[in-house]
């Protein structure tokens, strides 16, 4: 954890620094001799715990906390340190996770720091849970795109918009509902790349996007055809009939669904 000590008494500041130096969970700590220096450090640095003297000459510890709230600066877990009981109790009720009376023992300071550390970790976890949906949106990759060079331009096509892919010599035709594009690539390479996106091969020269399939039609020859949205049909050759199983994982009715 990262800690800021704010105390205008040198002896108290040194004692606190010695305690923090001996703790294995303290990543870094800074010191401030007065409220002005403390507010500057809090405005520019990030701290998990603030060990704060209540009674200082310029601003009290509670006033420093009020300034942080007014400026909407992040508020660390706070441990107040003071020689007077009454202001410590009042501050504890208003702002803090613990208070320690001067003169203090190392054991008492460590107890307060343990409590503040647990509070800081709990708040960090709560913030992470709160921001997780936004982080997932930011980190979630966008849809994969196919880049096609056409008439001196580079076009990007979402595979989900492609209905079928047809081999044409050394090219493949990416067929969408409204248009088509030629890509210089083999049908086998394209089939492998598009497999994760729901494309199945129906014969050696054609792939079909299963999300566009609306019907499997049996032919009198014992073979099948696929009809896609828009009405176009693709014949399935014997060697690729097994690929139809990915379309029939969920079915209703009894009997043989796709004959071998």
Summarize the topology.
Elements: E1 2-6, H1 10-21, E2 28-32, H2 35-44, E3 49-53, H3 61-70, E4 77-82, H4 85-94, E5 98-101, H5 106-139, E6 146-150, E7 153-157, E8 162-168, E9 171-176, E10 180-183, H6 187-194, E11 199-203, E12 206-209, E13 213-218, E14 224-228, E15 233-236
Parallel strand pairs: 1-2, 1-3, 3-4, 4-5
Antiparallel strand pairs: 6-7, 8-9, 8-12, 9-10, 11-12, 13-14, 14-15
Please name the defining characteristics of this protein.
260 residues; alpha/beta; Rossmann fold; OB fold (Dihydrolipoamide Acetyltransferase, E2P); 2 domains; five-stranded parallel β-sheet; five-stranded antiparallel β-sheet; 6 helices; 32% helix; rod-shaped
What can you tell me about this protein's structure?
The chain is of the alpha/beta class. It has two domains: 138 residues, 3-Layer(aba) Sandwich (Rossmann fold); 102 residues, LytTr DNA-binding domain (OB fold (Dihydrolipoamide Acetyltransferase, E2P), Beta Barrel). The protein is 32% helix and 29% strand. The chain contains six helices and 15 strands. It has a five-stranded parallel beta sheet with strand order 2-1-3-4-5, sandwiched between helices. Strand 14 and strand 15 form a beta hairpin. Helix 2 runs parallel beside helix 3. The longest helix has 34 residues. It is rod-shaped and about 95 Å long. The mean pLDDT is 81.
